[in-house]
Amino acid sequence: MRTKLMFWLFMISVLFDACKKNHDFGPVYLENSDTNTISDNATYLLVGCEGTFQLGNASISLIDLDSSRVKNNAYFDENGRAIGDVLQSIKVIDDFIYVVVNNSGLVKKLDSNLYEVGEVKGLISPRYVELLGNRLIVSDLYANKLSIIDTQSLGVVGEVPLEGWTERLVQFQDKIIVEIVDKKQLVEILSDGRLGRQLNLSFEPIQVMTLGEKLLICGNYSNQNSSVVMVLNDRLETLDSISVDQKLVNADLIGDTLFVLTDSHVRMFEMTIAEEVKSLIHNVQDAYGILADRKFGVFVCDAKDYLSNGEVFRFDISLTHKIRSYSVGIIPQAMVIVERP
Amino acid sequence: MVEVIDSFNLPVEAGHSYVIDLDRETNLRLDELVRKNSAIHLKTTAPGLLSVPTYRGGDASHTAVLMNGVSLNSPMLGSIDFSTLPLGLFDRAVFFTGTSSNTVGLGGIGGGINLISQEHFLDTTAQIGLSIGSFGVYSTNVRVSHPFIIGRRFISLMLFANQGINENQFSFHNIYSTPEKAEVMKSAKVNSGNYGIVLGTANSNKTQFTFMSWLSIYSRQIPLPISSSLPSTELQNDTSIRNQLIVAFNPAPKLRLKSVSHFELNKNYYRNERFGILNLNSFTSIQEYLLASYELWKGAQLEVQENPIFIMASSGNYSNQRNELRNSAMAKLKSEMLSKLVVLEGGIRLETVGPLSIILPFAGGVWKISRKSPVSLSGSYSQTARFPSLNERYWNPGGNPQLKPEEGETIELGMAWKNDNADIKLTYFDSRYRNRIRWLPTGSIFSPVNIASSHSHGVEVHWSSSHRFNVIIIEPFANMAFTNSTGIIKDGGSRHSLSYSPANQGSVGVDLIKANLSLSTWCEYVSKRFITNDESAYMPAYALLSTRLAWKHKCGIETGLTVSNMFDTDYQNLPWRPMPGRSFQMSINYRI
User: Fold this and answer.
1) In a mutagenesis test of the B interface, which of A20, A21, A181 is the best target, namely the one with the most B β-carbons within 10 Å?
2) Is the dihedral of CA B349, B350, B351, B357 positive or negative?
3) How many CB atoms are located within 10 Å of the residue B278 CB?
4) Which of B441, B536, B539 shows the shortest C-beta gap to A309?
5) Contact between B539 and A55 using a beta-carbon 8 Å cutoff
6) Largest CA distance in chain B
7) Which residues of chain B have pLDDT under 70?
8) Nearest residue of B to residue A143 by CA position?
9) Would an 8 Å CB–CB cutoff place B227 in contact with chain A?
10) What angle do CA B481, B482, B486 make, to 5 degrees?
11) Nearest residue on chain B to A81, judged by CA atoms?
12) What local confidence, expressed as pLDDT, does residue B4 receive?
């Protein structure tokens, strides 16, 4: 009798236990408790952190450039959910922040407070966005096309078939220039969406930017520890080129000054004379991204071991010293400076 | 039933090796069996989906899985999915740890499992089983073994077939969504089939031939983590056929010879509709495992192994077909001393892959306190290595042909207490690994590099005993591992806990047997695991209680009901990959 009673008490306790749920069973991110606030009217560095592939822990960190306070997981705090899986790039267009979340297949449109006002769905593996007229052009790793997005409705309104891994885009005059990484090509997209000129490269393109009325492209040679910076005219003809004796990680321009990030250095090139004028050993563990700003200096992302929280290093614009560093989310790589109205 | 390997006869294996008789575990899969009976941690995506083992803070590729002494680890991936291994085909599973991996095969830096099939020359057995469970789990098993005599030859034939459908439609609590909601897992269906034959013949008491063939077919949908907003479009089909010819020849009382010839054809189709990827990965592996054992003098035995492996592998992500010749050779000497109270063993293994060679010494000893004492003490030292897999060297993009082997060094100290009723083992281990391989971004692609080093030390405990109270037999058991594993991912970096390595882990349970009725209850516990290298994020600890009630009728029918995760605990092994709650599985087996 007593045994039976014990048995039924046990079974009932099992059923009752099943009614309550233990919420603490998914990943617990200790840094989620970051409650720093960024003051209104601040100028801040917005840092997009990739997060770990398939863990859905991409995030946005805000660095108040006046007070140097950092607010991590800022998108989560504003919207109550994580931004998605693998934050690839960020672009500010008309006071809106477009965030490309690669492995979630999304482009999110945020206001300056990081509140999400809409998102583009139905993309395969989006990488970068650029404005062409009043349309958004989205490159893609696997889609073999560029998607054309209406900036108001955020619906896909067209596409430009383009074989290969399309990567960075830049608005150049009234057209878009797009890198095709696996084919080592630059391709023009005309304002009506037709394909224009095409340039075959001898290196893998890493960064493409406008240099006044010219185009600047940087890339790495395969199987060599060297890279190249090339200046092109509007017919995609080479005007000048600089050989660099290191592989480059990324690059950014301020006016005619090019800042090239390598594993060990930030190197400054004056493009008017096509020469390197300065360099700095950055002592960053795993340099991953660079942003140069005339007022606030040069920022370098440190991905560390790609599994831990990263860091952003700030150097003065003359590349004489490090100003300070900021602890941010996992694999920081996309940076823009935004002023809150 | 877990049986501790006799420490006294196998000094290097003495630390924490044990063997499981699979005959009593027909309703468990290997991954479930490992969870119940060992200190190996499994990173499981979902039931029936990818399940990879990690041991003592090692990686999945540090756990060697062997079939009759021959490696089953994929030369392309370096590891094997535990969920694809059927238990019905094998008779015993031998678990071994790092120091003993040198005595059985290559690559088991952390440890491994040797699956052993046997011939049944004495009796006819037949078993038909049907299993139905929660979430759409159906499986059938047939295993028939029959001995017969042709002329003066004893023949044993065993046929095995297993077919399963696992819809994996379990409900889970989606903590990623806002607001959180209950959902049902979709896109995680697994179909599986395993078909095997074991044919054995004994010409005399000196020679025995065994032929074994095993066809394995798996197709599965691969669900995305719940943190992804996209529908899953990934499908994977795996087909492998493994054939073995085992020849055991004992030409003289002091000399034992054994040869295992192994042929494996393995094909993997991966399709991702979203990305438009269709990839075929395949390899053919031909292995010869030769073993010679000779008694030099009374109490001293010399054993020599030779294991050449030829691999042909191709993939849409290799620039061309990769052919590779590997060789693994081992020689060891074992000697009894001090009136058999002490046994010492020492040896050397030589691993060769292409132009790379590495020498791995090992040694161990066991001291029995006295002739009547149930207590023995053991100690062993071993160097181990794992050569980079083909994917790590040749995957395009990213493969790094310059990779060096991962190397490890382990010391084990153990104490065993064994009598008729109980087995207790306590093992301290200290392992250091260098040149660990990690995939890191180099420019726009990921590439594997030798960067990390790690240090694991801890204690493993095994306890099993059997007690009879009137008509009831009570068999409690416990397997626990307390591991402190830390690593440095990059030179100059700080030391932190290794990712996905629980500090405490184990299972505790009891089997109650009364005549034909048995009740097993066990609890698995896995402590907090950090998932980032700076310890900034972790997966919480969990404990699961499971029970199994089985009834055996004398006519041969055996029915069982297993309730897994009785308290319906929410848990995840990998982030954002929910595991199922409480599930029921009914099975019926007919044995003659």
Assistant:
1) A21
2) positive
3) 12
4) B536
5) no
6) 74
7) 1-18, 23-32, 35-43, 45-49, 98, 105-108, 229-230, 441-445, 490
8) B275
9) yes
10) 120
11) B178
12) 40
| Interchain proximity A305–B533, CB inside 8 Å | yes
Summarised one tens digit per residue, pLDDT across range A205-231 is 999 999 999 999 999 998 788 999 999
What is the token pair recorded at B120? 């049944």
Contact yes or no for B534 and A304 at CB 8 A: yes
Q: Using CA atoms, how far apart are residues A175 and A189, in angstroms rounded to an integer?
A: 6
The encoded tokens of residue B60 equal 């999945």
- What is the full DSSP assignment across B37-96? H-S-EEEESSTTS-EEEE-TT--GGGEEEEETTEE-S-TTTSS--GGG--STT-SEEEEE
Residues 482-541 of B with CB under 8 A from A: 489-490, 492-493, 496, 499, 531-540
**Which residues of chain B lie closer than 8 angstroms to A56, CB-CB?**
176, 225-228, 575-576
Q: Chains A and B: how many Cβ contacts under 8 Å?
A: 144
Q: What beta strand segments (E) does B318-442 contain?
A: 322-337, 342-353, 356-368, 375-386, 406-418, 422-442
* Cα–Cα–Cα angle for B418, B422, B428, rounded to 5 degrees: 60
- Tell me if B576 and A26 make a contact (CB, 8 A cut-off): yes
Residues B162-203 have pLDDT tens digits of: 999 988 888 888 887 777 888 888 888 999 999 999 998 887
Q: Which of A14, A124, A330 sits opposite B274 (nearest CB)?
A: A124
Report the pLDDT value the prediction gives residue A33, as an integer from 0 to 100: 45
Residue B540: closest C-alpha in chain A: A25
Average pLDDT over residues A136-165: 93
Ordered strands of the B529-530 beta sheet: A28-29, B537-539, B529-530
Task: Say how far apart CA B272 and CA B569 lie, in whole Å.
Answer: 32
How many whole angstroms separate alpha carbon B527 and alpha carbon A168? 44
Residue of B274, B492, B566 lying closest to A14 (CB–CB): B566
Q: Which of B134, B172, B536 to mutate to test the interface with A (most CBs of A within 10 A)?
A: B536
Instruction: Give the whole-angstrom CA distance, residue B509 versus residue B520.
Output: 7
- Measured between beta carbons, the chain A residues lying within 8 angstroms of B178 are 80-81
- Residues in contact with B552: Cβ distance below 8 Å, sequence separation at least 6, in sequence order: B516, B517, B518, B558
- Count Cβ neighbours within 10 Å for each residue of A8-37 and write b for 16 or more, e otherwise: eeeeeebeeeeeeeeeebbbebebbebeee
What six digits make up the tokens of B416?
Answer: 């065993």
Mean pLDDT estimate for chain B: 85
H helical segments located in chain A: 2-19, 74-79
A-chain residues within 8 Å CB-CB of B443? 204, 206, 220, 247, 249
Tokens of A151: 């900036």
Using CA atoms, how far apart are residues A325 and A39, in angstroms rounded to an integer? 20
Q: What is the ipTM of this complex?
A: 0.79
Please tell me the distance from the alpha carbon of residue A70 to that of residue A150, in angstroms, as a whole number: 34
| A124 neighbourhood in chain B, CB within 8 Å | 274-275
- A57–B440 C-beta distance less than 8 A: no
pLDDT digits (tens, 9 = 90+) for A12-67: 665 555 445 555 788 887 755 455 666 667 889 999 999 887 777 899 999 999 88
Question: In whole angstroms, what is the distance from residue B104 CA to residue B5 CA?
Answer: 14
For every residue of B346-380, DSSP letters joined together read EEEEEEEETTEEEEEEEEEEEEESSSS-SEEEEEE
- Is the torsion defined by CA of A322, A326, A329, A335 positive or negative? negative
Region A259-266: mean pLDDT is: 94
Would the pLDDT of A283 be above 80? yes
